[in-house]
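User: Hi! I'm working on a homework problem where we have to compare a predicted structure to a textbook description. Could you give me the structure for the chain below?
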Amino acid sequence: MTYITNTLSNLLQQTAFLNLTWGNYLMILIAFVFLYLAIAKGFEPLLLVPIAFGMLLVNIYPDIMAKPANGSPGGLLYYFFTLDEWAILPSLIFMGVGAMTDFGPLIANPMSFLLGAAAQFGIFSAYFGAIALGFNGKAAAAISIIGGADGPTSIFLCSKLGQTELLGPIAVAAYSYMSLVPIIQPPIMRALTTEKERKIKMSQLRPVSKL
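Assistant: Happy to help. Predicted structure tokens:
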């Protein structure tokens, strides 16, 4: 019985429940919001579920990010973070996203690549905005990739530029931006189009084979 009591006591001491700050509560709340949007609303579940789960783990069990010390192993997420610094995880993410992407509409209408080029405007806007807020050049460059709505690139560049202290906020901002597009787009579409235009059914220009 004493062993069980000591084990539970040690586990409780290792969690953040005894000394949670308002920041911990805020991040836990955001994590639950992300889980709700991903599971109940279907907003980018492949992105929001792992992000929210990671946020919960880090804020409830801080030692999961601990570095190896005195011969003891580090926390699980420490090794994930190391793989990210080695640029292994971003590369795997790029491969996965590329494998799941349907390029049929782009191949059928090559001119639509100009829509993707508009992301450059977002990158430069975010860069100069970060400079105006007082960030240095490298930090602003890492932040600016958020404007391109590209989470893996944001994480990769942040690590390459040595801005690891901004990695968490940048990852959350980039993936939140991408995942919340279904919430951001509808009011803009309603403001810029008529109901008749929104009811137009878009058909594929021409069939594109998988080969």
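For your comparison, note the following. The mean pLDDT is 80. The first helix runs from residue 2 to 14. Good luck with the assignment!
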